[in-house]
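okkk here we go again. third time trying to get the adenosine-5'-triphosphate bound version out, last two times i messed up the smiles copy paste (missing a bracket lol). double checked this time i swear
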Amino acid sequence: MNVMSNESASGPVLEVQGLSKVFTGNSEPTPVLSGLNFQAWPGEFICIIGQSGCGKSTLLKLLAGFIPPTAGRILFKGNDITGPGPERCVVFQEDALFPWLTVAENIGFGLKGRALSAAEKQARVNRFLDLVGLTEFKDYLPREISGGMKQRVALARVLVLSPEVLLMDEPFAALDAQAREQMQNLLLSLWEQLKQTIVFVTHDVREAVTLSDRIMVMGRITAETIINPTHLVPIPLDRPRIQNRREFMKLALQLKAMVSRIES
Ligand SMILES: Nc1ncnc2c1ncn2[C@@H]1O[C@H](COP(=O)(O)OP(=O)(O)OP(=O)(O)O)[C@@H](O)[C@H]1O
Ligand SMILES: [Mg+2]
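finally!!
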């Protein structure tokens, strides 16, 4: 990361400016993003929706610094992102835990390189075991716990690193409806306590409306149309959000219509 800093406490945490990505492999070049602009503010929860193949995961990988942009810039607090960094952590749909480590050891793994005493590390692990409700299961191995519990471990082992930005790519997509709802509630309660900036990709419009402050509706780039979201849709509903309320359903329907209009 660039050492020169022009950050201000009230500025955006993430700033995407004219971002384009074209994949060039063996086949034809594939343009995926073109001239994308948006900002994420401190503590903001942004969801990204859009149909399969529109570039949601690509955008997350760019924000994580796993892949470079073709054009444009991505800034973290005013500094160009040039690779992965500890201030930006990623949670995927199927996060592989270390199968030979216990729940507590998995959560503490990322702290190995940190300049903290053993007691401080243990205290942090205990705090996050408690926050995700897994204290009782701390000595279990991943194969001995449910899918929902594994995703709680995946979340805790990232949150224990105190990232300022949490990048989540369909983290609950593999869970059944009940576990998924529990994870949504858990994530919201952790976010209210820890105040990270979250960028969360989902296929599920209802999940996006349940979680986010603003929603980005992404479209696919074709020869005829280049869709660059320039406007993120604000979700002006109080939390906790009730899915069968009229205002919720109205917003979800409008967003679904936007997704299908872009794709048609
Ligand atoms: N490394 C790569 N090389 C070439 N093309 C790629 C690469 N990664 C992604 N793509 C292409 O970029 C486009 C967007 O892919 P991406 O995975 O970002 O979509 P997505 O919105 O996350 O889809 P889904 O909802 O199915 O997860 C697709 O056409 C995909 O084939
Ligand atoms: Mg994806």
